[in-house]
Amino acid sequence: MNSRTKTFIISEPDEGKRLDAFLASQMVSESITRSYIQKLIVQGLVTVDGAKVKSGYKLKTGMNVVVKIPEPCAPEIVSQDIPLDIIFEDNDIIVINKPKDLVVHPAAGNWEGTLVNALLHHCRDSLSDINGVIRPGIVHRIDKDTSGLLVVAKNNNAHLKLSDQIKKHQVQRIYEAIVDGNIKDETGRISATIGRHPVNRKKMAANVKNGKPAVTHFKVIDRYKGYTHIQLKLETGRTHQIRVHMASIGHPVTGDLVYGKSCKLMNTEGQALHARYLIFKHPVSDEEMVFEAPLPDYFSELLSRLKGQN
To answer: Do 79 and 142 form a contact (C-beta atoms < 8 A)?
Structure first.
């Protein structure tokens, strides 16, 4: 059985924590739940200093925790002739303007009709395999109901170098959103940890125990009756970061059914959030690459309706 390994060295702030709780907090961005971790522990796939222990084992500073995560047994991911809005492509990368409602990669119950299925048809065998058969080429993601830019790696060298840029916060991801309410300040910085919601494990939440640091910058573009059009720049890249951060300050992204509410002015479901600019260095040439995806129709139409209300 194929598996991947994660290793953690326990630091002083985590002294005394339960093994399962610690791992759940560390692996929240991978959507690995505490109950799944407990199953891995029972199966002997988690060790502490080389020994198998129970879920409630209390950790001590300096301990070495190793987790073996079995690769999911997924059906063969098929290539599908799905249209792609390609902004740029060469031998190493492909930059896509993802439409709203398109899932990035297959998952349980949703094995077809994704961006990966489309990429397999377009790129054939020219995609990195670092993330396995389910996520070939995928370096970073945007939510199903978020539109806009993302870069895909066509080989492992490009993947590793792009991932390193993301890790070092050298990739600029600039979004535009419409949010509920009138934001008082013209600019702002939101710094709030993000982690799995303590009750609803399908959601993320701000300022939760064991959350990871997250920073979002925003700037007001325009104001409307009951809504604000803003630009956002990610300093970090946590799951649902913009959506969680904006909801945490009382201005959820308009149409966000998870962290906010529906919007009768929208002609589509899901949040008004668009990844407009993507800036990074080419993984081979080291040239700075700057890409822009114009606002999609659903976003522009909502702005027109808001202007009509003023």
So the answer is: no
In a shared domain, residues 195 and 273: yes
Give yes or no: residues 90 and 137 share one domain: yes
- Number of independent structural domains in the chain: 3
User: For 273-306, what is each residue's pLDDT tens digit?
Assistant: 999 999 999 999 999 999 999 999 999 999 999 9
| Kind of pairing between the strands at 227-234 and 172-180 | antiparallel
Convert the pLDDT of each residue in 48-71 to its tens digit.
999 999 999 999 999 999 999 887
Q: If we measure between CA atoms, which residue out of 80, 202, 93, 75 comes closest to residue 134?
A: 75
Q: Which pTM was predicted?
A: 0.76
CA distances for 121 relative to 61, 101, 113, 124, 125, angstroms: 49, 19, 12, 5, 9
For residue 42, give its domain range. Answer: 3-70
**Whole-angstrom Cα distance, residue 138 to residue 230?**
27
Mean pLDDT, the chain, whole residue set = 92
Identify the CATH number of the domain in which residue 247 sits: 3.30.2350.10
pLDDT in tens, 164-187: 999 999 999 999 999 999 999 999
Beta bridge partners of 148: 98, 275
Catalytic status, residue 222: no
Check 14, 20, 92, 143 and give the catalytic one: 143
